[in-house]
């Protein structure tokens, strides 16, 4: 199994909950499609 580390830094103007959720859903869907496990982190 491949582990893909994703450190995603989202600027303040894009860091509202809806955008965070939307981007996380896209990343999770891509990771599942590629068969990766990943760790998702957001820093402000």
List key phrases describing it.
44 residues; 2 strands; alpha+beta
How would you describe what is shown here?
The chain is of the alpha+beta class and about 45 residues long. The protein has one helix spanning about 15-35; strands at about 5-10, 35-44. It has one domain. The chain is built from one helix and two strands. The longest helix is centred in the middle third of the chain and has 18 residues, at about 15-35.
List the helices and strands and how they pair.
Elements: E1 3-9, H1 17-34, E2 37-43
Parallel strand pairs: 1-2
Record field, number of beta strands: 2
List the total number of helices.
1
Strand content: 25-35%
Unreliable spans = none
Decide which structural class fits the backbone.
Answer: alpha+beta
Summed up, the domain count is 1
Overall mean confidence score, pLDDT = 65
Largest sheet: 2 strands, parallel
Computed over alpha carbons, the radius of gyration is 11 Å
Strand order of the largest sheet: 1-2
**Distance from first to last alpha carbon:** 30 Å
Q: Tell me, what's the shape?
A: elongated
Order of helices and strands: EHE
Level of helix content?
40-55%
Provide a concise account of the structure shown.
The protein has 44 residues and is α+β, with helices and mostly antiparallel strands. It has one helix at residues 17-34, and strands at 3-9, 37-43.
């Amino acid at each position: 199994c491949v582990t893909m580390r994703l450190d995603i830094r989202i600027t303040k103007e894009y860091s509202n909950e809806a955008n965070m959720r939307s981007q996380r859903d896209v990343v999770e869907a891509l990771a599942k499609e590629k068969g990766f496990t990943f760790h998702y982190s957001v820093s402000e």
